[in-house]
Structure formats: structure tokens, C-alpha cells
Amino acid sequence: MINRMKATQTVVTDYNVGAVARTLIEAPAIELEELYQQSFNMVTAAIPVSVYKSFNFTALAAIAASGLIRTTIAAQQTDQRISAGTQFATTSTSSVYVASTDTTIAAGDTYADVQVACSATGSAGNLAANQSFTTTPTITGFVSATNLSPFTSGRDAETADQTLQRFNDYISTLPRGTTASLSYGLSTAQVTDSNGNAIETVALSLVDEPYTRDATQPIALVNLYIFNGVGSTSAALVAAAQKIIDGYTQTDGTKVAGYKAAGVPTTVYAATEQDLNFSAELEIDTDLTDWATAEAAATTAIDSYLLGLPFNATAVVAKMEALLMGITGVTDVPSMSLTANVTGGIGVKLMAGTLSFTQAATTEATS
């Protein structure tokens, strides 16, 4: 504004700080600057929104954690029904898990696996394995309830950065039949319960073209492998993934294009799970920890490490030893059952088998 006044007249010449003319135009200048800044921010925010809308691409909502709870009762003479809506609570967290469907324990049987979902969405509902639960209302003959596998499907609402990354991945899949396209398609597969809660999703996937390593294999052949992040990937999840890859027709007649290339046999398989048994001797400092705590931490560390490995990965002995040494109170790992790295084959997911730890000679800190 000062430059305009200088260019359009010669009467006012004092534009120093505190001058009358400068003081008069400072207030509208500040407001104009604020308007420009707000306009810039709005346009910046609107650009990705408009692009997303043009592709009918929306941010992912939060998902509730879900899984199975092994519910054990004393044998009864009649069938015992665990009704949908039964609540399972654990002392380890404040989360409450609700039975999704009715589950019946037949007369004479002592347990059933109840499908549950967290009452609140988000990652806070994820839970480590082997937690104890109480039930509301109380189940007749109730003995115990525990989750044999961890709950890992809980997911927070997608952030703007995560949406942008997923959109970039989506754009890269528009030319169907590519490795990126197939991987993205697999990542969208899920199995839901009767309430629409995702109870199983694809956590890992692998696109394998056999001819790249074996010239006798057909060039037009693609094998896809999926893993649900927990173990025992279900046939239902495989079927859901295959449907997405092949393409399908919705109930209203709308055709949804698949992600495979036309004429190329593309088959989805569940991961081949290879259990890796592992044992180690741990020496601990009893002034820093007790054996039960150290043993539980060691089990969690190795289980989490193996569960987090991708397809065809190598379980590195040195890494596993380092994880054990990183546990508070562990001072030495005198021996381990594994002496060499273990690598999974094509479509193989290494999993924790039998994990056992024994206590070596105990040392105490000197004062």
C-alpha cells in the first residue's frame, strides 16, 4: 500500500514508522495480509480434498479391535448360549469387548471361541495374547476366558499424511496388473462380522512371479500370498482377496474391475506358516528384575520379532540375541537353541513356535 501511495501522488512524502499516513494504512494492510493468508490456507487445504473427491477417495475411519476369546465353563447338561452383546472386560486395560454373535457351548463341552469386537474404535483396543477376562452377565458354570491370539485389527482414524500416502499408492495402481496394483488390491481385503466390524484384514502380502526365478514356469502366471498379521489366515480372507483381484459385480449390477491383468492366471494363497521353535538360557540381575518378568518379556520380544518379519524374511540369530539382551535385568544369554539364521521360502511366513527360556546362574548387583 505504501508503494501504491508513492506511485500515485506526491503530496504525502513521510512514510516512516509513526508517520500519520503510515499509521492510517497499517490497520487495513494487516487485515489484507490476514485475508491473503487465510485464502492461501483454504486453497492449500481444498486442493487435496477436491482431488480426493474427484476419485471418490475418502479417509479411512477408525476400526475396532476384534478377535476370539476362548471361554471355558464347567461341563453342563444343557447347551449354554453366550448371547450377542455379552461384555468381556480385562483388568489389563479399560477396554470392553462385546460378543458379536450368539455362541453356543454344546452340552458336555467345556469351551467355545466367542467372536468379540471392542466397544470403542481405535488402536487402544488392541490387546496382547493370553489376557484374562470377566463377563457381564455372568455365564453359567464360568471358569475362565482368555484370548489365545493377540487382537491387532484396531486402527485409529487415518491422518492427512496417511491418506496422502494411500492416495499415492492408489494412483500407482490405476494401470492394473502391475505388482503395485496387485499389492494394493490385496491390502483392501477384509472379513467382517454381522455388524460390519473388520475381524480379519491383510497385514502382509507378496506378489510372486515364478518365471523370474525358474525359466520353466509360464511367463503369464502370478501367485499372491497373504497373511492376516496374527496367524491361521482364513479361507474367507483368501476368498475376499481373490474376489478383489479378479473383479466382481455388485448386487445392483455395477461391475467392479479387478487388479489382475486380463488372461493372466492370478491366484491368492494363504501364507504358509513355518513355526520356529526357540529356546535360550538367560542370566538375570535379581536386583533389577525377577525371573517371571524377564521370562514374559523375552517371550514377547521374540514373538513380536518373528511376527513382524515379512514374507521370505530371515530370522537373524544376532538380532534375537540383541533383543534378549535389551530386556531390563538380562545380563547375559549364555546359550540359544538357534546357531544359524533361518530363512523362509516363497510365500512362507516365519512364526513363533514353542518359545522356552531357562534361568542361568543369577547375579546380583554389588553395592
UniProtKB/TrEMBL annotation:
Source species, domain of life: Bacteria
PANTHER family: PHAGE-LIKE ELEMENT PBSX PROTEIN XKDT, PROTEIN JAYE-RELATED
Domain Baseplate protein J-like barrel: 77-154
A Pfam short name: Baseplate_J
Signal peptide: none
InterPro entries listed in its UniProt record: Barrel_Baseplate_J-like, Phage_Baseplate_Assmbl_Protein
Name listed for the protein in its UniProt record: Baseplate protein J-like barrel domain-containing protein
Source species of the chain: Pararobbsia silviterrae
